[in-house]
# Entry
Amino acid sequence: MTDITVPAGLWNDGDEAAISAWLYADGDAVSEGSVIAEIMVEKSSFELTAPASGILHIAVAAETPVTAGEIVGHIG
Amino acid sequence: MSNRSDRLWMYGTMVKSRHFEALIKPAYFEGKTPVFNMAKGPLPGEMHLSDGQEPCAVGVCAHLRPGDTVTATHRPHHVAIAKGVNLDAMAAEIFGKATGLSGGRGGHMHLFDAHVNFACSGIIAQGLGPAVGAALASKLRGEDHVAVAFLGEGAANQGAFHEALNLASVWKVPVLFVIEDNAYGISVAKRDCTAVARNADRAAAYAMPGHFIPGNDPDAVYAVAGEAIARARRGEGPSLIEIETCRLEGHFMGDAEAYRPAGEVERLKAADPIPAYRDRLLADGFDAADLDKAETDARAAVDAAFAAARAAAYPQPEEAFDHVFA
Amino acid sequence: MSSPETITAPRPARRLTIARAISEAIGQEMERDPAVLVMGEDIGKLGGVFGTTTGLLEKFGAERVRDTPISETAFIGAAVGLAASGMRPIAELMFVDFFGVCMDAIYNLAAKQSYFSGGQVTCPMVLMTSVGGGYGDAGQHSQTLYATFGHLPGLKVVIPSNAHDAKGLMLAAIRDPNPVIFMYHKALQGMGWLGTVQRSITDAPEGDYVVPLGKAAIAREGSDITLVGLGLSVHHALDAAARLEKQGHSAEVIDLRSIAPLDRETVRASVRKTGRLLAVDDDYMSYGVGAEIIASVCEAGIPLRAAPRRIAHPDIPVPFTPVMEHFVLPDADKIAAAALTILEP
# Structure
C-alpha cells in the first residue's frame, strides 16, 4: 500500500490548492509514473503522478481543498 | 505644466480607477474557490485589470470632452472611468445586470457608453479603424472633436494598426493613437516580438509625429497628449504617443505570471504611480486635505456603484434576443 | 519510437486530458519528423493558453517552437509558405473568434493552394484553434464557427470529443497533405479553470496511432432515435441519452469528429435504423451543422417516423451574462426535451 501525497514546494504557502480532476476512478488500475490527478492553484495546474502501480483508492474527492504533504489516496 | 484643477482631477480619477479594480478583484474570486473555475461566481469569464496603467488614461482624457470618441481594449476600466462612462452602469454591466450599459449582453470587454462616445473591444487593434472613422466624421461635419484609440504595445504588430495609421494620415483626420506599453502581451515580452525598440518610431513610417513618454508619469502624458490633441483639433492631423507604463497584476485574473522575472512585480509595485503622484502634488503645494477629499469622493462613488450593481436584478433570459438588430 | 499496440499485450489504461493528448501528439510527431514545427501566440514558454503545447519549447527549442507577435495574418501566411516549401507547420489561432483578422490566409490561400496549382503545391498545415463558450467570455471569445469553416472548400475541419480521438486526429492532421483546422472545445480541454468534463478524459495509447479524418464514431448505440453531435454537444447528447433510457427510449449518439469532410454515410445508416433525427451543436443555428445533417438525411430519401429537428445557438451574438448565455446554449435538458417531442409526439 503506497500513499499518494500532495508534493510540497510547488506553490506559495497560503495559496489555496484543490484537486480539479482525478483522471481515473476509484478502483481503476494505474501505472507508476502516470498522471492520475490535476491539482490547481488559481489558474496553474500541477500533475499528481502515481507513486506505484496498482489499484487506485481515492480518499479526497475532486474540488476539495488540499495542502502540501496531505495524503489524498493510496495505491494498493 | 498641467493646470491645478486638471492635476487634482487626474489624481482623484486614478484613485477612483484603482479602487474600482480593488473591488473587482475579490468579487472576481468569489465562487471560484477551491478550484478556480472561470464560469463561477458573480463575475464569470475573463478579467483584465488596469492597475498601474492609470496615468495613461488620465493624462489623455483630461483633455477630452464628452463629444470626443475613445476606443479602448480588453483592459478598459481605467480608460472608461477617465472618459466619464457612467460608473453605476459600468459596474452593473460587469456584474451582468439588467441595469448595465448593455443590459448584461457585453460584459467587461464590451463596454459601450454612447453618452460619452466610449467603446471597447476584445479583439486586438479592432478599435483603431473606428477611431479613424469617428475622427473623419468630425472633420466632415466641420467640428473640432477628436478621437483617441488606446492600444497595447502588442497591438502595434497587428495589421490593423499599420492600416489605421496610414489611413489616418492619408485622410488627415483628428485622431490620437495611444500605446500603453506594459512590456508584455500575455506571456511574451515586447522585445521578443517587436522589430523596433520604440513603437513611437513607427509613426514616421506613417507621416505623423510620434512621441515616447517614459516613467508612467501623468503630468508627462498630460503635456504630450495635450499638444497632440490640440494639434488634431486645429486640423493638423493624427499623432502617435507611446507611454511606458506597467501592469501590476497578471494579464488576466488568475495568471500565474511565471514568465515575469523574480522580483519584477515587487519592483513595479514599489514604483506605483498613484502614491508617487500624491507625493509630487504635495511637494508642489497641493493641500493634503484636498487630496484626501478627492480620494474619499472617488472611493465613495465606486463603493456606491458596486453596491448598486450587486443589488440590481439580472435581466430576463429572453432579453438576450433584443438589440441584435436596431 | 514506440511500436504499434498489440492485442496480446494488454496494459493498464492511460488517461489523458484532451490538452495533454494534443501536446503529446505534437511532441511525438516533432520527434518523428524534423519538418514539423509549431507557432502561435504564447505557445512557447506558456505552453499555450489552453495547454496545447505544454513542454514542447523545453524539448525542441525556440527554432521549432515559436512564440509569435500578435500578427495572425503574417504568421498564418508564413505557415502556408512553410507548407508549400515542404515543412509541416502547426499554427495556433488562440481563439477561433480571431479568424476575422487572418481569414484570407486561411480560406483564400491555404485552402486553394492545391487547386490553383493543379496539385503541384500542397499545404500540409494544421491550424489548431480553441472554440466554445459557456463560461462568461462573451461574444468575441465564445464562438464555435463550425459552419463558417466547414462551408469553405479546400479545408479539412475536425473536433475531438475525447483525449483518445484528440491524439489520433492530431497525428492524422499533421500527416495529411491538406490544411486541417483542428478545433478543440474549451470546455473539454481538461484545464480545470474551464471546468472538467470527466468523460472527455479517456485512455490514449502512448504509442503511435491515428484516427482517420472524415470518419464519425458511434459514441452510444441505440435504436429509437439518432442524436448527432460534435465536441461538447456529444457529451450533452450522452447525458440526455442516459435520461431517455430511464424513460424507455434507446438513443444512438453519433460523434461527428469531422465537420469537413462530413461523414454523411454514418449518419444516414443510423437514421435508416432509428427513423428519428435530432442534430445538436453550439454554433449559430442558420446555415449550420444541423442544417447540413438534416439535408443529408432528407435528400437520401430515408423514411422518417417524425420530422427531423436541430438544436443550436440562436442567431444572436453570444451574450455575456450567465442567465442569458445558459438560456441560449444547448444542454442535456434541451436535448432530452426535444428528443421527447420526436419520440412521443
